[in-house]
Amino acid sequence: MTDAQWFIDSARKQYNELAGGVERHFESVATQLRDWLPEGFQPPRPPPPPPRTFTPATYWNHVNRWVSRNTALSAGIFAFVGTGAVLVFIQRSTHVKKRRARKSNNGARTEAVVLAGSPTSPLTTAIAMDLERRGFIVYVITSTKEDEEHLRKQSRADVLPFDLDLIHPDKAEGQMQRFHHFLSRHHHAFDGASAHRLTLAGVILVPDFSTVTVGSIAQLSPEAWATALNAKVLHTITVARHMLPLVTEFKSRILLLTPNVVSSLRPPYRAIESTVSSALGAFAASLSSELSLQGLHACHFKLGNIEIAGSKQKRDEIKRARSMPGTSIRKLHEAIFDALHSSNPSRTWHVGRGSLIYDLIGSWMPSGVVSWTMGLQHAPRNEDQQTPESEDSSSDRSITWEKV
Q1: CA distance 289 to 167
Q2: What is the DSSP letter of 103?
């Protein structure tokens, strides 16, 4: 036997003796305790767990039970609350909607708009200023030096005159080619900036109805008819014709703005205005049909009573005090922007107080009922048949746009 084996056996023997001694000691202590405790004694059992109780019904359970008992009333409440929430959300989202033209990465303006209307007209000026504030480059068609001077007095860097000679077709073609080249070439906002190109967002046609002659058909001269048809109808059609190639290439929109109240009711002594408005409406419908074949859009804005702040005369203020106020021109600005940027704009837009209602009245009510409603049952007694409105055919009448 080796020394290692002897050492291991000796250690195991000592461990066994120690374990046996400890076990005998605990058995002796247990025997003494059993002898000391009285007979029949048992240690107390642990207390039983508390009985399982259910918590009272929550508020949500009460609500569920009430809804189950009042199904019809609950459906009405939910419908009312849901509809109100949707309307509030739509109103807030529409109110806070930002209508701004697109810009390049360096912040330069990239969308151009051609505005065809009298530069001195309050409506044309208001539309041009609003489009410029929204980030468009506005080109206003001018024909005289006075029109250009009027635009320069506005002190707007992005409201520019666009000289288009509609009398000489060859000259007009050259001017359109230069404008096309200007839109197509690369532009730099500043030295070192990345190049960008312009795009034509739309062409806005605003015939000026402020100078339309008012009077009976018997007294309207052929010259008055020719002047109105040439200046309002033919001029508008010619501008649209020259712009159509650019509209087709840049996938732009054409917007036509005409007053709608007089043309819908067709009252007496307004034959020229009713005829011009109807002719432009028919032109807008045909133009929209043709452009739709190419996937393009033409929108006809039928305008009612629209107020333009800062351009009212004393006589207009007196008339307005006796009638309902017009719609703020802000509604027109927002509608024009939406028509330029909407993916699928409507063909017809009614903007301004009385535009839609008078359109419905003129379309569905008999002419006799319309005349009776307007109080036009009898012709004037004076032989010249001049109406009080014939004195109000100045340029200020374009501010309210048809107040009947």
Answers
A1: 28
A2: B
- DSSP H stretches of helix in 185-270: 222-228, 235-250, 261-265
Question: So where are the chain's domains?
Answer: 111-376+383-400
Pair of tokens at residue 13:
């023997």
pLDDT 10s digits, 93-138: 655 568 898 988 888 899 999 999 999 899 999 999 999 999 999 9
Comparing 37-51, 257-271, 322-336, 369-383, the range with the smallest average pLDDT is 369-383
Q: Which two tokens stand for residue 32?
A: 């003494």
DSSP secondary structure letters along 36-88: HSPTT--PPPPPPPPPP-PPPPPHHHHHHHHHHH-HHHHHHHHHHHHHHHHHH
Fold category of 111-376+383-400 in CATH: Rossmann fold (3.40.50)
C-alpha angle 118-283-237 in degrees, rounded to nearest 5: 45
Better pLDDT: 215 or 323: 215
d(CA 211, CA 295): 36
Mean pLDDT of 283-291: 96
Spatial distance between the Cα atoms of 73 and 199, rounded to a whole number of angstroms: 56
Q: How far apart are CA 248 and CA 291, in angstroms?
A: 8
The answer, as to whether pTM is greater than 0.85, is no
